[in-house]
Specification:
The chain has 1 helix and 6 strands. With 123 residues, it is of the alpha+beta class. The chain has one domain: Thiol Ester Dehydrase, Chain A (Roll), CATH 3.10.129.10. Strands 1, 2, 3, 4, 5 and 6 form a 6-stranded antiparallel beta sheet that branches. It is elongated and about 50 Å long. The two termini are 17 Å apart.
Length: 123
């Protein structure tokens, strides 16, 4: 898997229990997948589906969150991307790196809004 994105969540991204809001994680996963998809298709893409998204462990303020991904399928104009997120903890309760989320997303390559484009196959 390829490292796509690294982010440190801030206090304003917490939920009412004090850990990072799930919507924040979902948006970062989508951005990480888009990085890989744009690189592969060499142009704009849009998210069309989140096939699977699992929250495995909470993320805390100031964890270093790393997103890794790989393309698992390429169609005529779509691609499926698997993303894994890991949090590197640096607090008094735990230090080390934990897998915090796993997701599968589908993107479609577009020429302009609403107009698909073909993806060139690569080896």
């Amino acid at each position: 898997m390829k490292l796509l994105l690294r982010v440190i969540p801030r206090p304003n991204e917490t939920n009412n229990t004090g850990d990072i809001f799930g919507g924040w994680l979902m948006s970062q996963i989508d951005l990480a997948g888009a990085v890989l998809g744009i690189e592969y298709t060499e142009g704009p893409i849009v998210t069309v589906a989140v096939k699977d998204l699992t929250f495995l462990k909470p993320i805390y303020v100031y964890d270093l969150v790393s997103f890794y991904g790989e393309i698992t399928h390429v169609g005529k104009s779509s691609l499926t991307i698997h993303i894994e997120a890991y949090a590197q903890r640096r607090n008094v309760f735990h230090s080390g790196t934990l897998k915090v989320s796993d997701a599968i997303l589908v993107y479609v390559a577009v020429e302009k809004p609403g107009v698909k484009r073909l993806i060139s196959k690569r080896d």
